[in-house]
Amino acid sequence: MLLASLTVSAQPAGIAVKLLSYNITPNNVANIGYTITINTEVTNEDSSTYTGTLDFGLRNSNFVINDSNVFNKPWYSGLQAITLSGFETVPAIFSVEIDAQYFAPGPDVVVVWPISNKPIADSVLIFINVQNPSSIEDETELPFAYTVQNNRLIFSYDPNDIDFKQVRIFDITGRMPIAYMGSNIVEVALGNLPRGLYLCEILTRDNQRKTIKFVL
Question: What is the pTM of this model?
C-alpha cells in the first residue's frame, strides 16, 4: 500500500514550483516500485526578470539529490541560462521513482524545490506512507485546531476522539528539524527555528495522518 497526502508551501518572493496535481502508479515496466508523476508550474514570483541557471532538487527523509539529472526534469533546466520574465509561469513535469534504493517501508516525504540564485518562493511536498500490498488512500480530516504562540505550536482537540502520538516539523525543503513522539501531544516547542514557513505532519494513535502548514 502506498498512502499519500500532500501540502504545498508558499512564500511571496523568488522562484516558485507549485503543485497542480500528482498521481502514483505502479512501475510495471521497470518493476522497481512506484512512480509519482508531479505536474507543476514554475513561476518567477518577482517583478524583475530572472536570467540564470535553474534546476530542481529532490529530497526524501533519508536521501537528498541536488542534481535533478537523476529524475525527469523540464527542458529549460540544467547548466544553460534561462530567462523568466517578471511573474512569468512555465509548466514542469517531474517523474520520481519510489524504489527500495531510496525509500524504505513506512512514512516519508518527497520534496521538489527550485535551485537558483533567487530565494525559494514555493516548493512541493508530498507525504507518503510506503506499505504493501499496492493501493492508494488519501489522508483523512481530523477534528482539531492549532495556533502558534511564543515559539510553540499548540493543538486543541478532544482526547476522547483523537490522540496525537507523533508530530514532525519540516522546513520548506523537507528537512525535519523537530520530531515528537508520545501520547496526547498538545504542544510542540519550536526552539530557535528561523522565521519562515513550515509544515507539520501529525500521526494519531489509530494511524490517521494529517499535514498542516504554519508561519513563524
Answer: 0.67
**Mind listing the pLDDT tens digit for each residue in 137-170?**
445 678 899 999 999 999 999 999 899 999 999 8
Segments forming the whole domain that contains residue 11: 2-130
Task: Please write down the long-range contacts of 24-30, taking CB distance under 8 Å and 24 or more positions apart.
Answer: 24/98, 24/128, 24/136, 26/134, 27/97, 27/99, 30/97, 30/99
In a domain, 138, yes or no: no
Same domain, 27 and 111: yes
Same structural domain for residues 168 and 208?
yes
Q: Of 167, 162, 160, whose CA–CA distance to 205 is shortest?
A: 162
Residues 164 and 212: beta-carbon distance below 8 Å:
no
Residues in the chain: 216
Residue 121 and residue 151 in one domain: no
